[in-house]
């Protein structure tokens, strides 16, 4: 069964705007990860946030984690057309070597 | 794609035929995974391996078998392909290290194999 659930399923914005995607999960986790998938390609790891962390930054990416609400958000600032892709959250629970992926958010950044 | 190749990249086959997909890595990572990706279902784990000759089932393993005789190769076999197995198949690898900063278990994905079963 899917652990993570992304919201919204699809998001369309203009270049330069910020994009926020959310992920909710059901059980306790060791860490939560975000991945990007460009059309026709494999997933690419973006960022990992541990269960004892609340916020993490990487370039234009900002990830937050609220374990009390079992939710995470991914913020992409100053979006570019090249950010157009599907974004997935993945959770690592009791089994450290297995991840459970959500169904993804399709982000379209219009030039 | 982090030293991961998948072959073939595209395959069209007929119902009832056997199909084998190959994943090859040059990273010497311990863990290897096979996923399938379908619209509306996201990414679902089929089988995974935690070492040579050590494999286990994922959430959608029915109709699939795997083998890992070498660290670098992980094979996915559809013994008798069905139309419901039409999908995009991804291989992934991971090292799953536990360090001072906690668990690092990012996965690195191959380019995918698009399989069509007619």
Structure description:
Chain A has strands at residues 5-7, 10-14, 19-24, 31-37, 43-50, 55-58, 61-66, 71-76, 85-92, 100-101, 105-110. Chain A is built from no helices and eleven strands. In chain A, a hairpin with a 5-residue loop joins strand 4 and strand 5. The mean pLDDT of chain A is 92. Chain A is an all-beta fold and 111 residues long. In chain B, strands 2, 4, 5, 6, 9, 12 and 13 form a seven-stranded mixed sheet that branches. Chain B contains no helices and 13 strands. The radius of gyration of chain B is 14 Å and the shape is globular. The mean pLDDT of chain B is 93. Chain B has strands at residues 4-7, 10-13, 19-25, 31-38, 42-51, 54-57, 64-70, 73-78, 87-94, 97-99, 102-104, 108-109, 113-117. Chain B is an all-beta fold. The chains are: A mainly beta (111), B mainly beta (118). Chains A and B meet through strand 5, strand 9 and strand 10 of A and strand 5, strand 9, strand 11 and strand 12 of B.
Concise structural overview:
The complex is a heterodimer of chains A (111) and B (118). By secondary structure, chain A is mainly beta.
Oligomer: heterodimer
Radius of gyration of chain B (CA) equals 14 Å
On the 0 to 100 scale, the average pLDDT of chain B is: 93
Which sequence of SSEs, written as H and E, runs from N to C of chain A?
Answer: EEEEEEEEEEE
Globally, the shape of chain B reads globular
Protein traits:
A: about 110 residues; mainly beta; six-stranded mixed beta sheet; five-stranded antiparallel beta sheet; 11 strands; B: mainly beta; four-stranded antiparallel beta sheet
Write the layout of secondary structure elements.
The complex is a heterodimer of chains A (about 110) and B (about 120).
Chain A: E1 5-7, E2 10-14, E3 19-24, E4 31-37, E5 43-50, E6 55-58, E7 61-66, E8 71-76, E9 85-92, E10 100-101, E11 105-110
Parallel strand pairs in A: 2-11
Antiparallel strand pairs in A: 1-3, 3-8, 4-5, 4-9, 6-7, 7-8, 9-10, 9-11
Chain B: E1 4-7, E2 10-13, E3 19-25, E4 31-38, E5 42-51, E6 54-57, E7 64-70, E8 73-78, E9 87-94, E10 97-99, E11 102-104, E12 108-109, E13 113-117
Parallel strand pairs in B: 2-13
Antiparallel strand pairs in B: 1-3, 3-8, 4-5, 4-9, 5-6, 7-8, 9-12, 9-13, 10-11
């Amino acid at each position: 069964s899917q652990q993570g659930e992304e919201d919204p399923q699809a998001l369309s914005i203009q270049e330069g705007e910020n994009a926020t995607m959310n992920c909710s999960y059901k059980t306790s986790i060791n860490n939560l990860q975000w991945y990007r998938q460009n059309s026709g390609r494999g997933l690419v790891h973006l960022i990992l946030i541990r269960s004892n962390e609340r916020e993490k930054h990487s370039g234009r990416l900002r990830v937050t984690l609220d374990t009390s609400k079992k939710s995470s958000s991914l913020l992409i600032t100053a979006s570019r057309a090249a950010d157009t892709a599907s974004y997935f959250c993945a959770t690592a629970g009791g089994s450290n070597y297995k991840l459970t992926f959500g169904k993804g958010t399709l982000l379209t950044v219009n030039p | 794609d982090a030293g991961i190749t998948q072959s073939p990249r595209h395959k069209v086959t007929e119902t009832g035929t056997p199909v084998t997909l190959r994943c090859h890595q040059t990273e010497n990572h311990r863990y290897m995974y096979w996923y399938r990706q379908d619209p509306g279902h996201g990414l679902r784990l089929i089988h995974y391996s935690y070492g040579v000759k050590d494999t286990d089932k994922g959430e959608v393993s029915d109709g699939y078998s795997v083998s890992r005789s070498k660290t670098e190769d992980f094979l996915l076999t559809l013994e008798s392909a069905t139309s419901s197995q039409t999908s995009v198949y991804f291989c992934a690898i991971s090292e799953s290290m536990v360090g001072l900063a906690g668990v690092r278990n990012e996965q690195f994905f191959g380019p995918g194999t698009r399989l069509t079963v007619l």
